[in-house]
Amino acid sequence: MSDKPEDEEFEYVECDPDDPDGEDIPVEEKKEAEAEEVPIEEAILDVQELKKSEEVEPEVEAVVEDTTVWELPDAEDFDFIDHYGEEVEIKHHDQLDDNSVASAINFGVIGVGGGGGKLAKAFLDLGVNKTLLVNTTPKDQPSGVDEKHLVIVPGADGVAKDATLGKKVFKENGAIVEDALRTRLGKVDWLFVFAGGGGGTGSSCVALAPVFERYLKSVEAEGTLVYCITSPTSQELLNQTIRDNSKQLMKEVAKYPHIVLDNEKQGKLLRGKVGMLSLFPVANKTFAKLLLQIFKLSSESSPMQAYDSEDLKRSLKTEKRAFIGSTLIANPNDAKLGATIFQNCLNRSPCPAPKGKPKTGSILLVVTPEMADDPEISKHLDAAISYVGGRSDTLFAGVYVKEKLPGLVAIVMMNGLD
Hints:
Elements: H1 27-35, H2 40-54, E1 107-112, H3 113-125, E2 131-135, E3 150-152, H4 163-172, H5 174-185, E4 190-196, H6 209-218, E5 225-231, H7 240-253, E6 258-262, H8 263-270, H9 276-297, H10 309-317, E7 321-329, H11 337-347, E8 360-367, H12 369-373, H13 375-389, E9 394-401, E10 408-417
Helix pairs in contact: 3-9, 5-6, 8-9, 11-13
């Protein structure tokens, strides 16, 4: 180290002792640099400010809506949104197959008791898969019915024609029937309940009305509850218990839309055509075909005049009794075709004769292409429709054309009868 005083240390050009490899710095520049020297604290602050000014701000990315939000880890936090989408029917593993018959309405069939079960089976055999047979004993069931269609209500092994006991059993165990409706039928808009008037279980069927109505309300059904009951034969009516049960059931269904099938009348219509063993199975099947034909025609279009689904719904919803009859006219070229159709339908119907003026009247005519092209027959068809229309407050009509018919087919339905 030099012994020179500190102020004379850099009067000559010499190598910076702190930077032996650096360049020679002239003495004058060295003095200027020393004159500009600032305290170390200020220098540090200046350096920090410089670094801040040199920092590059990060670019802001544009926000783009992510349409694949459900792939994010937290997607399940928002899965409730999809739950408010389109309605999806959840099918229970016990749910019955859909009906295979053509129909303008979505319906199910319930048979209550022995007689009602046999009637319901006729519909099941024709493709109405949404069918349940409800009974208080497994011993009075028609043969050939799969267990998935059976509902056995506990509390009694049959009720021995005791309608009071039957009602008590149904009221105490209605939840079993309601559960079967929900799990096996799924959703239907209409329930047709069949029962035999006179027996104990069938005559108790109106005790289940709150169950049926609650089910229809829960599925937001568009339709309603329709009863179809049978009246005993004249021989059966000799029994006081059967007579009382039948009479009471008639009173209880009176406020509902309902159909009455007269077993005495059906027996007379079929006697001589079938044996005793087949009489009521044939009667049940014949009526099932008749009612299902109305449902089918109301689902079809017509080149002439259609009886559409709304016509059918309004008719079926009409309170009080309904009448259904049919006939086949071999020669429709008849000036009195309207009266002939009406009288034949009255006489050949399984229902008791109508009383009073119906709220709604429906006439469905099925003709061949040749009949539809015949001006004279067409005139008679119009007259027949007017004939039925004049005997009801509101008339609905449909004319359909089918090939290879043996004659003109006519079906008359009247609803809202006393």
